[in-house]
Automatic annotation (TrEMBL):
GO molecular function, one term: hydrolase activity, acting on carbon-nitrogen (but not peptide) bonds, in linear amides
InterPro entries hit by this protein: C-N_Hydrolase, C-N_Hydrolase_sf, Nit1/2_C-N_Hydrolase, UPF0012_CS
Record Gene3D superfamilies: Carbon-nitrogen hydrolase (3.60.110.10)
All residue ranges annotated as the CN hydrolase domain in the record: 4-252
Family stated for the protein in its record: Belongs to the carbon-nitrogen hydrolase superfamily. NIT1/NIT2 family.
Recorded coiled-coil stretches: none
PROSITE patterns: CN_HYDROLASE, UPF0012
Protein name: Carbon-nitrogen hydrolase family protein
Length: 290
């Protein structure tokens, strides 16, 4: 791993795509001005709280969101974990969208993507009450690893945080940095957000970059408190409950020391091929290996 300055955007996305994109554009400009090299956006970054995923899918398509994000990355020479966008893949044979996290390099190229695997089908004691993501989304079918200039990145999304085996599978394949675009609810976030992030970072001796939504999106209240946690479980930086751009430096010596002190990745007893889903690895020459 190499040193890297990262920026996490905590925002309160609404249903209007242009307003949300304006927030993202300003944040990327500010991140570049502060010397960031990698930016992480929250889940549902382009459209949130409108109720109909089909409307959001069409908004994203008509708004050429992917092209605009790529152009911003090229303009500011930034790598970007672009939150999530709803994407329908006709070839899947399923009308539901994928909750897809695109990753762009500093030239503005889409290098890879990750589709959220674990869908939030949960009853929560808040004003929404019943969450059923699987009504609108289908689960992803592969893990993703990306060899960035600073180390091997594993993009995951929100509810994936509660599945430690997913993180371990990626760490055993070399993941050093986990990114986690999220829209954790206020109720579950207050109880579980920070301890889960710290646990996943400690277990795998890796940095965890968790960019969360904040504020109110329709009936849903999101927790905010975006944070970066280092491989020893230390909080490197955190946001409050309002919109913020959080800028943090990642230090390779901390990762190396944590893995030397607690070499749990060398002590696992898991057989080869134990995780049931394949991994797609992007390398700098542009190849994708399944």
């Amino acid at each position: 791993m190499k040193a890297c300055r990262v920026a996490l955007l905590q925002m309160s996305s609404g249903v209007d795509l242009e307003t949300n994109m304006g927030t993202v554009e300003q944040a990327l400009k500010e991140a570049a001005a502060q010397g960031a090299e990698l930016v992480v956006l929250p889940e549902c970054v382009a459209s949130f709280g409108g109720g109909k995923v089909s409307r959001a899918v069409e908004q994203v398509r008509q708004g050429a969101v992917r092209q605009r994000l790529g152009a911003l990355c090229a303009t500011h020479a930034l790598w970007l974990v672009a939150g999530t966008l709803p994407v329908v893949d006709a070839a899947s044979g399923d009308p539901r969208a994928f909750s897809r996290c695109f990753v762009f390099d500093s030239r503005g190229q889409e290098v890879s993507y990750y589709d959220k695997i674990h869908l939030f089908d949960v009853d929560v004691a808040d004003t929404t009450g019943r969450y059923r993501e699987s009504s609108d989304y289908q689960p992803g079918r592969h893990l993703t690893l990306i060899d960035t200039p600073w180390g091997r990145l594993a993009p995951l999304v929100c509810y994936d945080l509660r599945f430690p085996e997913l993180f371990r599978a990626l760490a055993l394949q070399g993941a050093e940095i986990f990114s986690l675009p999220s829209a954790f609810t206020a109720v579950t976030g207050q109880a579980h957000w920070e301890p889960l992030i710290r646990a996943r970072a400690i277990e795998n001796g890796a940095y965890l970059l968790a960019a969360n939504q904040c504020g109110q999106q329709g009936a849903r209240a999101t927790w905010g408190h975006s944070m970066v946690v280092d491989p020893w479980g230390k909080l490197c930086g955190s946001a409050g409950s309002t919109p913020q751009l959080l800028v943090v430096d990642l230090e390779p010596a901390i990762l190396q020391q944590a893995r030397q002190s607690i070499p749990s990745l060398q002590h696992h007893q898991l057989p080869p091929g134990w995780y049931p889903l394949p991994t797609r690895l992007w390398t700098p020459n542009g190849s994708i290996n399944d």
